[in-house]
Amino acid sequence: MAPVLRRTSARSRDPESRHPPPIRWVLAGRSLVNGRLRPLEIGVSGDGIIVALGRDLRSPERHDVGEGVILPSATDLHVHFRDPGGSRTVESFATGTVQAALGGVGLVADMPNTIPTVTDAARFEEKRSRVLGRAAVDVLLYGALITTSKLDELATTVGALKLYLSPTTGVDTPPGHDEIPSLLRRAAATGLPLTVHAEDPQKFRLDPPPRSLSDWDCSRPEVAEEAAVSEVIAAAPRGLRLHFAHVTSSRVADRIAKAGHSFEASPHHLLLSRESRLGSRAKVNPPLRSEAKRSELWARFAGGGIPCVASDHAPHDVAEKDRPFELAPSGMPNVETMVPLLLAKVRAGDIDLARLVAVAMDRPSRWVGLPRGRIALGHRADLIVVDFRDRRTITAKDLHAPCGWSAFEGREGIFPREHYRAGERIVFEGEYIGTPTGVLRRPEFAM
Ligand code: NCD
Ligand code: ZN
């Protein structure tokens, strides 16, 4: 994000129109301009588009956040809102998108492993009807790439595809090795972005039953990830818009980066290790790795070697999570805490603000082909306001996840003070004040 300082817009949403729509109000504060925090005013039109960037903009209305830092809202490429199939103690679009809004996330990409799985147009429709009128932020829906039979039909509805190569929540029988090349070819033909959960189950060691986070790491080891990533890279046809979910190792990250594909790391793999005392609550797929591996992954992330961060927000009923380790489901909530945890890391000097904007806002938005994640003329005014003095200790009782716990309890977080969706304020002084007007999004341009 490097907004060019200019008084009026040279470009409006309609390239034909010479005159940009008038400024209805101005948001004034500080933002990253050419890599540095500088005063900036953002002129927003009546329909919520950024129509001017500069200083001393004239406008009927003005909201000055002083030393507050204005950033684009984030795009989270990986959430499981369990709708349909969730419950009051797990999640829904209504509850999940409010957490997103409070956590500075303006677009969520929801995974297809719901009950039922999103495999055809009718199931997409069912899910769509659960989003509209209930979502606090915008939503992109994934479809599941399991067989090719209904793929053409599915591809006209969903915003992206997800391929699971290993068993995980809601996925019992992943496709076999011989099916992978044809699935990838068919995915490429749809033109949709494809995210892969890359673990090769043939490399799993599920005996004896895992009883701890270390056992879980040994049973689904890094070599399983490496093998699956290599297999997919080797089979990926030209033109496939490919992304790997939740990469846990710097070596795998380097391998994917070298091949030129997109990928994400998740905050739990960046901030937690198998040495954590959280037991089955920190059971996730792929597993948390050793502290040494975690710190290598963080170094790669802070150094710019990882393009995207995504929460893999995967809540389960807490009673289910607290079952004996081998029976507990995998996954933890994080959509509300991902950006606040990383903003606290910016404040601590562990990562640059520009890097955070790239990994949480800009790059994930580009990957799903949507004009967001930057403060730029013609983009929608989907913005957050952050006060870096506003440090808070994360505690589940202040969070909004129905499952009621957080693996990041006790850590520092900086939550956005304000969040704007198309220029409308949906979070003010850290409270959600919006209405559920979030809409469905699909890619608008190629990567
Ligand atoms: C996810 C879930 O519970 O849906 N669990 C997880 O541990 N990440 C599924 C997944 O992403 O593998
Ligand atoms: Zn997931």
Describe the structure.
This protein is of the alpha/beta class. Helix content is 26%, strand content 22%. The protein has an eight-stranded mixed beta sheet with strand order 3-2-1-4-13-16-17-18. A hairpin with a 2-residue loop joins strand 16 (418-421) and strand 17. The protein is globular and about 65 Å long. The protein binds N-carbamoyl-L-aspartate (NCD) and zinc ion (ZN). Zinc ion binds at residues 78, 80, 111, 312, 314.
Write the layout of secondary structure elements.
Blueprint: E1 23-33, E2 36-45, E3 50-54, E4 61-72, E5 74-79, H1 93-102, E6 105-110, H2 121-131, E7 138-144, H3 151-155, E8 160-164, H4 180-190, E9 193-197, H5 213-219, H6 222-235, E10 241-244, H7 250-259, E11 262-265, H8 267-271, H9 291-302, E12 308-309, H10 318-321, H11 338-347, H12 353-367, E13 383-386, E14 391-393, E15 412-414, E16 418-421, E17 424-428, E18 431-432
Parallel strand pairs: 1-4, 5-6, 6-7, 7-8, 8-9, 9-10, 10-11, 11-12
Antiparallel strand pairs: 1-2, 2-3, 4-13, 13-16, 14-15, 16-17, 17-18
Helix pairs in contact: 6-7
This protein binds N-carbamoyl-L-aspartate and zinc ion.
Zinc ion binds at residues 78, 80, 111, 312, 314.
Low-confidence stretches: 1-13
Mean pLDDT: 95
Strand content: 15-25%
Strand order of the largest sheet: 3-2-1-4-13-16-17-18
Question: What is the rounded distance between the termini?
Answer: 17 Å
Per DSSP, the total helix count is: 12
Spell out the helices and strands N to C: EEEEEHEHEHEHEHHEHEHHEHHHEEEEEE
How many individual β-strands? 18
Task: Examine the coordinates and then state which fold CATH places here, giving the name of the CATH topology of the largest domain.
Answer: TIM Barrel
CATH superfamily of the largest domain: Metal-dependent hydrolases
Heteromolecules bound: N-carbamoyl-L-aspartate, zinc ion
Let me know the largest β-sheet: 8 strands, mixed
> Which architecture of the largest domain would the CATH scheme give at its second level?
Alpha-Beta Barrel
- Class derived from helix and strand content: alpha/beta
Return Rg in Å: 21 Å
**So what's the CATH class of the largest domain?**
Alpha Beta
Total domain count: 2
Anisotropy-based shape: globular
Fraction in helix: 25-40%
